[in-house]
From TrEMBL:
InterPro entries: Capsule_synth_CapA, Metallo-depent_PP-like, YmdB-like. Keywords: Metal-binding. The keyword Metal-binding applies. Fe cation 2 binds at residues 37, 65, 145, 170. It holds the Pfam family YmdB. Coiled coil: none annotated. The active site is at 66 (proton donor). Fe cation 1 binds at residues 8, 37-38, 172. The keyword Ribonucleoprotein does not apply. One of its GO terms (molecular function) is metal ion binding. Residues 2-188 form the Capsule synthesis protein CapA domain. This is Metallophosphoesterase.
Length: 252
């Protein structure tokens, strides 16, 4: 099973990069998953952004701390392969995991959100324990949407040997630590952002800079400009992870 995970799609530049590049490379992969929590103008997911990702070839869209910024997401969570963090409190709309099939094999995708410098959700460690006890699949991919690299690494080592791969998202900064952990789980701290890097984590430079200079709230504006497509390639075979490697494409 060859899988491509696309890092946080940020606003119009991110959607454009996915639309321009993914159709060309889509035949090389059995499954494509994208984090789309910033796809709608930089915050949240709406029907237009979801449709653009699906039409480009994305099989499943994950969310994050901006999951519920658009009301349209509630309908998507009810009917479409859209996943929010599994460690939201009981009763939260949607689901935190999804099962995908490709080539006669199954993939269980689970997302959890970190709690360090983030919203105080339920324990992601025990949430994953419960899901892994209840669900079975040939392969398990866990996305950890978290601010602290230490929390992502802690979750990865906690899951080492129990899941096929753990990928981090949220910081919009790609890391060069793609590796195999001691018990075989593939890991990368952050896949990075698909959007314009002439920005401050995808936001307009002047308004984001003003937050630091004035210590006051500023309007949120997603940056414009040429985009980079950041993703991670995963190869699974024989019930285990075979390889992990970052993938980068830059808009001409």
């Amino acid at each position: 099973m060859r899988l491509l995970f696309i890092g946080d799609v940020m606003g119009e530049p991110g959607l454009r990069a996915v639309g321009l590049h993914l159709p060309d490379i889509r035949p090389a992969y059995d499954l494509v998953i994208a984090n789309g929590e910033n796809a709608a103008s930089g915050k949240g997911l709406d029907r237009r952004a979801y449709r653009m990702l699906k039409e480009a070839g994305v099989d499943l869209v994950s969310l994050g701390n901006h999951a519920f910024d658009h009301k349209e997401v509630y309908g998507l969570l009810e009917t479409e392969p859209v996943v929010r963090a599994a460690n939201y409190p009981p009763g939260t709309p949607g689901r935190g995991w999804w099962r995908l099939e490709a080539g006669g094999e199954s993939l269980l995708f689970v997302q959890v959100m970190g709690r360090v410098f983030m919203d105080p959700l339920d324990d992601p460690f025990r949430t994953l324990d419960r899901i892994l006890e209840a669900e079975e699949a040939d392969y398990v991919l866990v996305e950890v949407h978290a601010e602290a690299t230490s929390e992502k690494m802690a979750l990865a080592h906690y899951l080492d040997g129990r899941v096929t791969a753990v990928l981090g998202t949220h910081t919009h900064v790609p890391t060069l630590d793609a590796m195999r952990l001691p018990k075989g789980t593939l890991y990368q701290t952050d896949v990075g952002m698909t959007g314009t890097y002439h920005s401050i984590i995808g936001g307009e430079i002047q308004t984001f800079l003003a937050r630091f200079l004035t210590a006051r709230p500023q309007p949120f504006r997603a940056a414009e400009g040429p985009a980079r497509f950041h993703a991670t390639e995963l190869v699974f075979e024989g019930g285990k992870g075979v390889s992990i490697s970052p993938y980068v494409w830059e808009e001409p």
